[in-house]
Request: fold
Amino acid sequence: MKSNFLLYMASAMLMIAIGACQKSEKEEITKVKPPECGTCPKICLKTLTVKWANTKTRVDNLSPAGTIVSSYDMFPVGYFDLLATNDYKVLSNGVPLDGKWKISADCLLVLDEGKPLERSFEILKLTADSLVIYNKQPGIAYTQRYKKF
Reply:
């Protein structure tokens, strides 16, 4: 009985140590600063308002303490179209979605503000040909990568 408990404790400590050693994709991205644009220095709306093709989504499963327990990559087929009218259109694996977007006062990309599906993303990287956004929720974090369509 005591040996089972010790084995269980050793396994738990190993999982915590492995999780602490993993870095999120967010931490690994070098933030690229495009030219100064508007009130959010790293977000140039002219660069942002284009059609983006999905390339990869990293999903990090998080412990209650916020450390990464496991990660996997998804490769959705589709696009994310941010229009200058503040409308957006998404097609992900054949599933369409549309709504309104804005940049918040704290420089987050917000979709469908005030609606049940409201989501906020930190813009980790924005260049003329790539976009990386990050969304963290309890227990899970998403890093979504796009290239110009």
User: Anything to note?
Assistant: The CA atoms of residues 44 and 57 lie 23 Å apart. The chain has one domain: 2-148. Residues 2-148 form a domain with the Lipocalin fold (CATH 2.40.128.280). Residues 2-21 form the longest helix (20 residues).
